[in-house]
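Continuing from the previous page...

OK, I double-checked the sequence for Periplasmic heavy metal sensor against my notes and this is the correct one:
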Amino acid sequence: MNSQKYSQLKNFIIIALVLCNLVCIWFLVGKPGFNDPKVPRGEEWFIQNILKKKIGLDDDQVTEFLKFKREHQQELHGKWGEMHQLRKELFDNLGNENYNLSSQIQKTGQLQAELDSMAFAHFTQLRSICRPEQYEAFDAGVKRMMLRGGGRGRDKDRK
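Thanks. Re-ran it with the corrected sequence; updated structure tokens here:
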């Protein structure tokens, strides 16, 4: 390749890279409200949009909903830690023939029952902020979410 073509190619690549960088910077910083802390982002933003579009909650209801959700997650954090410890203990004793498996399963089942009870109470509390015309959409959304479990998208036909 002669030096003139090489120089032109080098200049073209440099200009293309500069333009790509400028576009990336514009996407990161130039978006309206990017630096505005009042503009919601991430999971909370997603939840707000779902609650408004699917259930029809207003801003006050969404604020209360998110407050209840944060409180519930704090309560669950300790229970999840307990469940982790029970499962760790179970698999730490994998080779132990004298291990009392039925006792461990009973503890795990009792803790899972507590978690289910907490979830039901939480959704009952969340439902209490809905207006009567929102109940049907809320109930359907909760049912869909809870039945989905770990098999996301597999139970589209499940009622």
